Amino acid sequence: CKGEIIMSKKYELVESSKIIFGNVILYRIKALVDIPNIVKAGELGGYIESEKNLSHEGNCWVGDDAKVYGNAQISGNAYICRNAKVYGDAKVYDDAYICGNAKVYGDAQISGNAYICRNAKVYGDAKVYDDAYICGNAKVYGDAQISGNAKVSGNAKVCGNAKVCGDAKVYGDAQVSGNTKVCGDAKVYDDAKVYDDAYISGNAKVGKDALILNNDDYTTISGFGRENRTTTFYLSKNNIIMVECGCFHGNLEEFRLAIRRTHDKNGILSPLGDEYMDIANLMEKRFKRVLLNR
Fold first, then answer.
1. Are 115 and 102 within 8 A, CB to CB?
2. What is the pLDDT of residues 180-239, one digit of tens each?
3. What DSSP character marks residue 274?
């Protein structure tokens, strides 16, 4: 028809290379044109259920043994490879990259330059975008959003309405959920649990045994000591005051002992030692108040 735009196809389904995956028939794809730095015409790609799964526009591709099925849509310049799986109503677009054994499903959306790899899972209504990086055995689900240069790795879980952004990192066995926001250069790691409406920001480091239910459960202080570093104080699941200061991690009493070992000469604290001890005493008062309402 006059004025009709006919879109040329960049791949075809290979009927002879179809497989049954669960209850779904998947077809291996074959490139009909060169896609720069990805595939040459005539080369085989991964598997899709139908052409609705992979756009003929852009440089998006499904390679290796990757599988895309259901109502999932791959578009833009997105690349799905290795043994990755994208299914359900998930959408992967822009320059997003899904590889390894990663799974993206449900109504999840992956966009920007986001990178999902290894055994990571993104599902539910989760969104991962910008230059965010999800790897290891990490899980991002619910209505969680990961953006900026944020990284979620290890066995970490981010769910609910939680947001991780900026250069923040969530890793180890950490769990971030509720309406929590982790941003800036903050780190949540080890077996830390951050729930409800907590806002972890700046250079805060929340680690072993942490249980943060709101902003009263942690604080930071900066600009003191030899390195002018940021020190984080937080409550543990056993209501113990914990300290993250440089390479030191321990409870408040262990922090005081470390101060004396480092800054005590003949029973007299150095000026730096005095600063550290004053802060330790201040934090003890602060968290005593918080624990009265916990």
1. no
2. 999 999 999 999 999 999 999 999 999 999 999 999 999 999 988 777 889 999 999 999
3. H
Please say whether the beta carbons of 103 and 121 come within 8 A.
yes
DSSP annotation of 174 = -
What is the rounded CA–CA span in Å between residue 236 and residue 211? 5
Give the SS3 label for residue 271: helix
DSSP state of 4: P
pLDDT of residue 2: 47
Which one, of 248, 185, 188, 229, lies nearest residue 212 by Cα?
A: 188
Tokens 């999800």 identify what position?
A: 134
- Per-residue tokens: 219: 């604080």
pLDDT, position 266: 86
d(CA 115, CA 190) in angstroms, rounded, equals 22
Structure token digits, residue 151: 């990284």
pTM for this entry: 0.95
Q: Treating both helix axes as pointing N-terminal to C-terminal, what angle do 271-292 and 252-263 enclose, rounded to 10 degrees? A: 170
Name which of 173, 256, 169, 162 is nearest 208 in CA terms.
Answer: 173
CA-based nearest residue to 141, from 114, 113, 164: 164
118 is written with which tokens? 């290894």
